[in-house]
Amino acid sequence: MFETAFTPFQSLGGGALIGLAAVLLMATLGRVMGATGILAGLLQPASLPDWSWRAAVLAGMISGPAIVLVLTGQMPAVQVPVSTTMLVIGGFIVGIGVTFGAGCTSGHGVCGMARLSPRSIVATLNFMITTGLTVYVIRHILGA
Amino acid sequence: MRLILTYFIGLIFGVGISISGMANPAKVINFFDVAGSWDPSLAFVMGGALIVTFIGYRFVLKRPAPILSASFQLPNRRDLDLPLISGSALFGIGWGIAGFCPGGALPALGTGQPEVFIFVAALIAGIFSAKLMQATRARRAGAQA
Prior knowledge:
The complex is a heterodimer of chains A (144) and B (145).
Chain A: H1 8-28, H2 35-43, H3 48-72, H4 84-101, H5 105-114, H6 118-141
Helix pairs in contact in A: 2-3, 5-6
Chain B: H1 2-20, H2 25-32, H3 41-60, H4 82-98, H5 102-108, H6 114-144
C-alpha cells in the first residue's frame, strides 16, 4: 500500500483552476479544454493556426509544475507506485481508449459533463467504474 | 498575442493539475482504492472543476461567439455508440493500471521525471495505433460501400 495525505483544500483549489482554464479557453478560442483532443490535434496537424494554439496550451501546461515550484518552493509530487511495464501497458491502453472514446477526464469528465452532454456523462461513469474495477483487481485480487 | 493568452490558459490548467494531485499517480490510484488506502481528494478536484466550468460555460455559451474566434467548436453528437462505450471502458482500465490520465500526465512532464515521459510515449503510441485502426476500418467500410 502507498498511503497519500487527504488534501481537500489543495484539490478543490486545483480543480477550480482547471475549471477556470476550461472556461477561459471556451470564452477566447471557443474550444474544449480536453487533453486528449489537444494532444491528438498536435500529433496530426490540420493547419498552422490550429497547431499553434494547441502547442501554446501544451507549453503552458508543462510550465505548471515550475510555477508551483516558484510559488511554494516545492515541485508537485509525482509518485509512481507501478512498474515501468505497467506504465507502458497502461499508457498504450489509455491512448487507444481515449481515441475511440473521444475524450478523457478533462474533455468528457469536466467540459462535457459541465454541458450535460449525454455522451460525456456515459463515458465518465463508464471509465470511473472500469478504473475502480481495475485498481481493485490489481491491488486486492492480484495483490500487486 | 493570441498565443501568449493561450499559453497562460494552459499554464492555469497546468498549475491546477499540479496542486490538485491529478498529476500524481499514487493519489489517483488511492482515490479508486476504496477497499485499501483510500484518499478521497480527487472528488474535490472533480467537484471544483465541475462547479466552475458549469457556471462559467452558462455565461460564455450565451454569447454569439468566442472573443478570438469565429464560432464555438462544440462536439454536438448525442448518440451513444460502441466506440464511445468500449473506448471509455478501455481508458479506465489503462488509467487504473498506470495511474496517469492524459490531462494529468501532460503537465507532469514539467517535473522532468522520467516515468512521465515513458507514460506519454506509450500514450502517443496508443493514439497513433488507434488512429491507424480507425483509418483501416473506414477504408474497409468505404470499399464495401
